[in-house]
Amino acid sequence: MTKLDDILQLYSTAKISEQPELTPKSVSFMCEKGYLNLTKAELTARELELLQVILGKPVKHYDPWQAFLCGRGKRPVIKGKVRFILGKVEFKNSEFSLATWKKALQEMFTTEILACFQLKDDEFVLVEQVSATSYESADFLGIAQSLDAELNTKTKFFIGDLWPAEFDLAQLFAEEQAIFAVCKIKLEK
Length: 189
Prior knowledge:
Helix content is 36%, strand content 28%. By secondary structure, the protein is α+β, with helices and mostly antiparallel strands. The strands form 2 sheets. Strands 5-6-4-7 form a 4-stranded antiparallel sheet, with helices on both faces. The relative contact order is 0.13.
């Protein structure tokens, strides 16, 4: 029996679905089978904390790209090419939040950003619809420097390749994420 099976047995209202239930009365967690949805009224504060230790932070919003790339959702409809831009941001002080940083980053793009979501507390991914106005990899040094100067951060990017929509994007994202993890370790040494 898995941890997830144990949780499903312990909580009568717990259920697995393809999308999180994002209502004031429910809490959802990403899991290997999709999203684990629970009724908040059934949980004590301590139980919720314990579930967060086991499953990670609850889902605050549903992003179809995040669900798809993490193997928990259907492929979004796209045409042309996309690019994954992975990054890590460190805040030198608590004056700004990741939400402020993400908004400033997205405003720098002239192309369509299909998704922008967190991988971890300090890591994120942008899914960019590639066009003639897409930035070159070298341009991202200037973007990072601008963000860092404006928001007192330390930003690192990993710029993925340009991928045609018909390719296995979830697999390519996983591979680029693994490369990013290795590069990030080397940069931190």
